[in-house]
Specification:
With 946 residues, the chain is mainly beta. It has 15 helices and 54 strands. The radius of gyration is 31 Å and the shape is globular.
């Protein structure tokens, strides 16, 4: 069967009476064109909105809209937009046509021959595209300034020959210049032309050739570029160039080839630092140094080398450590690391064993070590350089691996932590405890402030306090750098600050903090519904700034961070709070003014989900998205949230399709608990008819009542919108679990929900099925051993045997799975040898003789969360018993399907499977006969068996 014929079969497989409907049912051809919002931006002055509309597969469209006039301009294939800080330009990438790239991939084009991106710059005032350049590798604009746009272009192919330049003598050790015989020449092929545009009254263009990387200062007053000419250009000089924006001048601040990394300007754009190695590319070990440049200097100098005072013996500057100037520019934080041992070149690769040695005293299991090997090889430890004093201090090391500074690096003290004492227990706890120190930044001196913390810890924005949450007592504590005192600061809050609905055998997690008042005067702490203002010094009592409105109305209130650069709140500042009702699931917004006795004001609320508001930097204009099950996540814009207007129009084609409705459905479980789920019905629902039922579950899903679910090939979850459109009723129940009995808990909630739903005359009780992925897949497998109620079942990546899964490995992270059973989702709450009966009771494998329901299992050989042998155990056990079962292994794919072609494939098979068992559709070949290995890649088994 041809691929084209296969897809035609899949599109119209089985649709009893559907074509007679006034609206079409969804089919598998609709996925690619279904749209979503990619990026949404608002200009600093609030006059312009820029957003992208992206189909699931195909070419995006970028829209630039004048929010005052409503005038809108569209750009095909526009992506990654940036609005300049002066509100004058929008710069964006134009991607190659999707089909053009697809054809190049089919032809296996080389990277250099693949279609390339272009750059466009649009003038907002004139409404014209003033720059359109092809073959652009990247572009950048200042983070907090304007007046300059820089982009890197692939150079034209140069076929001219040039002689190799003569080597220059090496320079002094404290100079950042070097000879030309070093690393960097090999990277010349990646070099391009850097174009710098001055966006004054007229656009002015300058070009620097042979650039491999470039960095803009935050205000845009300076730019640095690494120049690495190829061997054929003997006239160009390699090195580091500094570009002065106002003067349109460049100068070399370091000459010679080298390996350069981690370029960083200070906030004013006056100081510059980077890491550099001048070692030959053939050197057995590459040693890096810290280069700095600042006002009054002609060229950069090497500030820190492996022999500098303060550097550990056999350590050096790390090329992998991020460079950060303090806000005042008086400190430069950088990374150091032990100099790696040179590779033993005498070892003959094919004559030595390749073996992993597992040791019971290792911090981490070998799979985790191997998974994190690259990260560990690149690990660096924080040090600080004081330019005015020309000295360095090592702040962290292998005994205290992490370091945080406060007040953007200006604070006198920082926070250091280590979990090295508790890593072995990670295997069965899933987390590590931390030791914490206060670190005096000028000297590196440490003092212990907290030992063996089971919880979270951080330094305050202004660097006056360290604050932590302790899972052991469920309270927040602070350490005051000024007084040296430690105190519990949340004891006066009369409600729990941790998950009130926790149903796992572990400490409930805190609802978290939501920000600080300036100068660290207050920290703001969430409870389940409300927000508390807490004095970290312990002098003032806690104040509930939301005045109990959240808990009284069972509505969760959370602060929305509208300014991404905001470090703290100002007194009398008005916060925007997003809200969601636990009862109705309505979304909305409130406002509350800090240090004000007035109660929060409700701005908007309704049967919607509100998504990701963004605010203009210098105006009151806000953009946000709003959805329901029926409404796409369109963008709304307005100076007032309550009067915002829709500015995008996603998925107009939806009106042509039979969609659906979503509502809350409530019932009582077998254990007497009141619960609820989302009930989805077809748009053309007729209570005089009987509908087949699909039940999809995970844990709790009802908060998504007003979420939009586009028809899309899923990672293995149920494609709810698709099935509802085609005449199914779908129930998505909430489940609460009893520790030690997750399987029975699932039974109590899911089966009772199915029975409650079946009391309705419009439900076809004899045609009900279940579907779940991962944890949902486990529950599917358990349920088919516990009840014959369901006519068909589909389990994605399930655990079948907890006794073997307990000791398995999550290959994506390298972690052992024991913690899941003892403390988290699998909810046994004991080791295998403490409660073996619970592992057996909750394992579907031990109860397979009871199964009467046909079951499809999807489990992939590259599953990094649940070892795929779990699916094999389930399949082979059912097969041994002669039970109808099938297993899909998408070769090389993950726990949740990542490859789109596999997602499309599984949607077809799910439809065929459920249509066959619940609607009486003919069985496809893969279901009735299978697809032998000899036909793999030729016949997908979608056609019906002859």
């Amino acid at each position: 069967m041809t691929r084209s014929a296969m897809w035609l079969v899949s599109l119209g497989l089985w649709c009893t009476g559907a074509m007679a409907q006034s609206k079409k049912p969804l089919d598998h051809s609709v996925y690619d064109s279904w749209q979503n919002i990619g990026v949404k931006l608002v200009s600093p002055d609030g006059r312009w909105a820029v957003y992208t509309v992206t189909p699931q597969e195909g070419d995006a469209t970028l829209f630039i809209r004048n929010l005052q006039t409503g005038r809108q301009t569209a750009f095909e294939r526009g992506t990654a937009p940036v609005i300049t800080d002066d509100n004058r330009f929008v710069a964006f990438t134009i991607k190659p046509r999707f089909q053009e790239t697809r054809q190049a991939r089919i032809k296996k084009a080389k990277p250099d021959d693949m279609p390339k991106d272009s750059l466009a710059i649009y003038d907002l005032a004139s409404g014209k595209t003033v720059v359109h350049t092809a073959k652009v590798k990247s572009f950048k604009t200042p983070e907090k300034g304007s007046g300059i746009i820089a982009y890197l272009v692939e150079p034209a192919k140069d076929t001219t020959a040039a002689k190799k330049p003569a080597a220059k003598p090496a320079t002094a050790a404290d100079d950042a210049d070097a000879d030309d015989d070093g690393p960097g020449k090999g990277g010349a092929s990646a070099a391009g032309d850097l174009v710098i545009i001055q966006t004054g009254k007229a656009l002015l263009f300058d070009t620097i050739r042979h650039v491999t990387s470039y960095t803009l200062s935050k205000p845009g007053n300076a730019l640095t570029a690494v120049v690495s000419p190829g061997k054929k250009d003997s006239l160009a000089t390699p090195g580091v160039i500094l570009w002065n924006t106002s003067k349109r001048e460049s100068k070399y601040i370091s000459k010679g080839q080298g390996k350069f990394a981690q370029f960083a300007f200070d906030d004013k754009g006056e100081q510059l630092a980077w890491t550099v190695s001048r070692d030959s590319s053939k050197a057995p070990v590459t040693v890096h140094a810290l280069a700095v440049y600042g006002p009054g200097m002609d060229t950069a100098r090497l500030a820190i080398t492996s022999s500098s005072n303060g550097m550990r013996d056999k350590w050096s500057v790390s090329e992998n450590g991020r460079l950060i100037f303090s806000r005042n520019g008086q400190r430069l934080f950088f990374g150091t690391a032990p100099i790696p041992k040179p590779k033993d070149t005498t070892i003959v690769d094919f004559e030595v064993a390749k073996v992993d040695v597992w040791h019971y005293l290792d911090d981490y299991l070998q799979p985790m070590q191997l998974k994190n090997l690259d990260r560990e090889l690149k690990r660096s430890y924080t040090a600080v350089y004081f330019p005015a004093e020309n000295r360095m201090v090592q702040l962290s090391d292998d005994s205290m691996e992490t370091f945080q500074f406060g007040d953007e690096g200006n604070a006198e003290y920082g926070l250091g932590t280590s979990d090295s004492h508790s890593r072995i227990a990670l295997q069965w706890t899933g987390k590590t405890n931390k030791n914490a120190w206060m670190v005096h930044i000028p000297s590196g001196r440490r003092m212990s402030i907290k030992q063996d913390l089971n919880g979270q810890i951080a330094i305050s924005p202004a660097g006056k306090y360290i604050i932590w949450f302790d899972n052991m007592n469920g309270q927040y504590s602070s350490y005051d750098f000024l007084t040296g005192s430690t105190r519990i600061i949340s004891a006066g809050i009369p409600v729990k600050l941790t998950d009130e609905e926790m149903d796992m055998p572990d400490f409930p997690q805190p609802y978290g903090t939501t920000g600080w008042m300036e100068n660290d005067k207050y920290v703001y702490i969430n409870d389940r519904y409300d927000i508390w203002q807490v004095d970290p010094s312990g002098k003032e009592p806690a104040v509930m700034i939301t005045q109990g409105i959240g808990r009284a109305n069972k509505t969760v209130l959370r602060n929305v961070k509208l300014n991404p650069d905001e470090r703290f709140y100002a007194p009398k500042q008005t916060l925007l709070l997003e809200s969601q009702s636990d009862v109705t699931k309505f979304g909305g917004f409130y406002t509350v003014r800090l240090m004000d006795k007035a109660a929060p004001k409700q701005v908007v609320s309704g049967p919607y989900a509100y998504i990701a508001p963004v605010k203009a930097k210098n105006a009151s204009m806000i953009l946000y998205q709003r959805t329901t099950y029926q409404e796409s996540p369109d963008i709304f814009a307005g100076e007032e949230l309550s009067t915002a207007k829709r500015i995008s129009q996603l998925n107009p084609q939806q009106k042509d399709y039979n969609w659906g409705t979503a509502e809350l459905f409530k019932w009582q479980t077998y254990n007497g608990q009141e619960t609820e789920g989302i009930l989805y019905k077809p748009e053309d629902f007729d209570p005089a008819k009987k509908y087949p039922v699909l039940i999809y579950f995970y844990e709790k899903l009802t908060d998504g009542l007003y979420g939009y679910q586009p028809p899309a090939p899923t990672p293995s979850r149920l494609n709810i919108t698709f099935f509802v459109s085609r005449g199914y009723v779908v129930l998505a129940p909430d489940i609460r679990y009893e520790n030690g009995r997750p399987g029975k808990s699932a039974y109590d909630y899911i089966v009772s929900g199915a029975e409650a739903l079946a009391k309705n005359s419009w439900i076809d009780r004899s045609n009900m099925a279940i579907q779940g992925q991962s944890w949902g897949g486990y529950q599917v497998c358990y349920l088919v051993t516990a009840t014959p109620l369901f006519k068909a079942a589909w389990a994605g990546a399930p655990v079948a045997n907890m006794t073997s899964a307990y000791g398995g490995i999550r290959w994506e992270s390298g972690m052992n799975r024991q913690f899941q059973y003892e403390h988290t989702q699998s909810r046994i709450g004991a080791t295998l040898w403490e409660k073996p009966e619970l592992y057996i009771e909750n394992s579907p494998l031990f109860h397979l003789p009871k199964v009467t329901t046909p079951l499809v299992i999807m489990h992939n050989d590259a599953d990094g969360a649940v070892p795929w042998y779990q699916g094999i155990e389930m399949f082979t056990g059912l097969r041994r018993l002669g039970k109808p079962t099938w297993m899909l292994n998408y070769n090389g794919d993950a726990h949740n399907l990542m490859q789109r072609q596999n997602r499309k494939d599984i949607q077809i098979r799910q439809q065929q499977f459920f249509d066959h068992y619940l609607k009486g559709a003919p069985a496809p070949k893969w279901l009735s006969k299978g697809v032998p290995a000899t036909e793999k890649g030729r016949d997908w088994g979608f056609d019906t068996a002859e």
